[in-house]
Records
---
Amino acid sequence: MLTPPPDAPVLATVRPDWVDNNGHMNMGFYLVVFDMACDTLWADLGLGAPFRARGFTTFAAETWVNYVRELHAGQPLTSTSEVLGHDAKRLHVGLALHIKGNDAVMAYSEQMLLSVDMDGPRASPFVPTVAARVQMLATAHRSLPRPAYVGRVISLPAAKTA
Amino acid sequence: MLTPPPDAPVLATVRPDWVDNNGHMNMGFYLVVFDMACDTLWADLGLGAPFRARGFTTFAAETWVNYVRELHAGQPLTSTSEVLGHDAKRLHVGLALHIKGNDAVMAYSEQMLLSVDMDGPRASPFVPTVAARVQMLATAHRSLPRPAYVGRVISLPAAKTA
């Protein structure tokens, strides 16, 4: 997992209307912020506006969120991200949310994204320039310790379920 | 998995501001609707307003979303839900989103929720009336075929990752 740089941009500040009866950010809005984190990573991978202008995009296939610590209104959020795997049409990423200026992981999201040709829409291989950047970032991230959050299954021990 | 009844209430209609550059509901907003689906299930389980008034609530620990089919602005959404497992302090549920009047699963969310005493807040066993309702619903749902969406791990085959 990566550590946020001191100049990490603020993706969003926790909005009062994101806070629920529990006085913390509602679980529903975490993916709204993780989507913003994706946009930042997408720019690095060449998956941003120029890519979309050519008729390509990405669709989320699966997302998973681990709610690590409560978030409260007014907290400025930054993110870190890592490429966990990829093939010709798929990108497996891990994203962490942090409060600006603090390395602690407040939430972690693992996501599987598909490369899509909007002429369909249908799954389609990443164009070569994007594939090269994905490969480069995957190589750079390969030596990072795999976060404990990755590859989990949501379940209760069988003996404890009724 | 359950089939939505004809009189299933509409949780929400896909809002134009939930639609992204891809012309479909952005991945970030699915959990906003699944949270509404939880509220419906919570009322059945006795985890609604009276429970909160006594100082108890639930926190999401982990959520997972499988994006099955695209959703578009104006579509009215309903949900079905099932109890997949539970123990004294935890509830493992599966929720499906449907377009009103259609049984097709548009998205499926698996979630692990914690029973929480707001005096802390700290994890705390479900109060007896809730535990009894959870047990009753879990028993009713035990004979349902387990959805293919449940218990998945987000990953790419090792041979394909770079």
Note: Chain B has a mean pLDDT of 92.
---
Amino acid sequence: MSKPIEGRGHGAFEHGEELCQAKPFVHRIRVHWGDCDPAKIAYTANIPAWALKAIESWWEHYAGVDWYQINLDRKVGTPFVHMNLDFRSPVTPRHMLDCEVTLKRLGHRSITHAVRAYQDGVLCFEGEFVAVFVDPETMKPRTPPDGILETIRARCSESS
Amino acid sequence: MSKPIEGRGHGAFEHGEELCQAKPFVHRIRVHWGDCDPAKIAYTANIPAWALKAIESWWEHYAGVDWYQINLDRKVGTPFVHMNLDFRSPVTPRHMLDCEVTLKRLGHRSITHAVRAYQDGVLCFEGEFVAVFVDPETMKPRTPPDGILETIRARCSESS
Amino acid sequence: MSKPIEGRGHGAFEHGEELCQAKPFVHRIRVHWGDCDPAKIAYTANIPAWALKAIESWWEHYAGVDWYQINLDRKVGTPFVHMNLDFRSPVTPRHMLDCEVTLKRLGHRSITHAVRAYQDGVLCFEGEFVAVFVDPETMKPRTPPDGILETIRARCSESS
Amino acid sequence: MSKPIEGRGHGAFEHGEELCQAKPFVHRIRVHWGDCDPAKIAYTANIPAWALKAIESWWEHYAGVDWYQINLDRKVGTPFVHMNLDFRSPVTPRHMLDCEVTLKRLGHRSITHAVRAYQDGVLCFEGEFVAVFVDPETMKPRTPPDGILETIRARCSESS
């Protein structure tokens, strides 16, 4: 059964957050032929998918766990509650797509990332992505297990 | 070569628009096993993809042309410049996913749709999607060919 | 950890099988703009994905359970061990894609489906797909729970 | 309109082919959370998609053109006419997925690749993929432009 996620909606994750001034983490994507539509540019729906892959790589790098590990091994789900995206310039296979991921806010209830993606120095898209921490079985809010937020904060300080 | 899309960015499509008070158009989607991730809910990146399919079905119904036809036969591209989405409740294969599409704004430069999607009466996600009209070869702004906006306006009036 | 699937490989599911002469089940797919690549035809990798969706719909119709239900509620996994596909004619959004699914072999260890897909009467692709029955936790072979094979056989007889 | 591809079907590309004994080319793929289904393994339909990406990377490496370039710049389409796949062991995000691509046959009408993919030394899947050379507008058979087959043959000799 589909369970509503408690704490979803804007305003639920406003308190106790802090800004982490890290240098952007860059996740490089090879755009393929099959990612493009007959307009010869990447089909729009691939773009949020790439942004999520970039954010998952950020997790692996900064928290030491990817989403598979944090969900299955650490019993923390991180479902998204919001995303917004502005598409600035078409994406094609002519260049690599460099997705810069920045941590914007980190709290005990939610985490916000910004993604800005470039091809050959041109900004192609940018967006913001908000996820919350939940128990993966009940989908109720939970705080991340000890150590994960500390690891992220420590690595962000190192890289800023 | 990746060409920047002129007129992209908020503010470019503010003037000359009008609200079309149509009843929502419903595009029904069957959620599949492979759409779900190990959390047993639809993977987030599928959601914007479904919203786009619902909007494309809206085009077919209200404008009489799908994106394949409007691009290849009528030489009008409709790239998205913005999307935002709030995820309210998880999507699963337990129920059909009914995507309600509403036209929010229609002008000579851009078109804005809202999508609200339900499973078993529960709001699962909602979002807004802004596309602009371009020449598909040059990616420069163009107005839609005669008849398309009129067709949309006429059908929206009928259904409101 | 990735566990090898026992009983995988050709020859493991040769015995005790029987042919079920059912009429083809038809699963209709709407091909979208974003399914096509710059050659203006459906990108190849979408084709096995559509065939699997058609087979999943067959399951829902003939066995009364989709893959989500058979896995999560009935504790039977049905991983594929083999697929082969011949691509006969390009798929486009110009017509609906009608995927005919036929049960070819059904045993206590494996199940084989054929899929033949048409647009406007033209054969676009055809293929064969072999899946095995496993315990979803251990990935070891298991027989399907009571009733599922009987339900399939009964419905196949009705429709032949 | 969907045009049938001439020369499709087995037997059309039997003559004038030759074996190119190259060392496998390895295309490494990072498996993501969203690639997995509720069985906690990669969803089957992602596997042919990955194999195609590996083959496209092979093209870029051995022919000096990816599918975007060969189609749009060189006016050669390379649609697949056949694929077969055996799934040997589940794919998960626990390890990188190394896709070995080998050229099996190369002629003036078709090209055949084998893909064998490993995670942590375990064979996960293997398959064969046959594509033909066509004019991308008419979908009629054509020979590849001068230089492409020669480039492939030269690079295969170097690497064998």
Note: DSSP finds three helices and five strands in chain C.
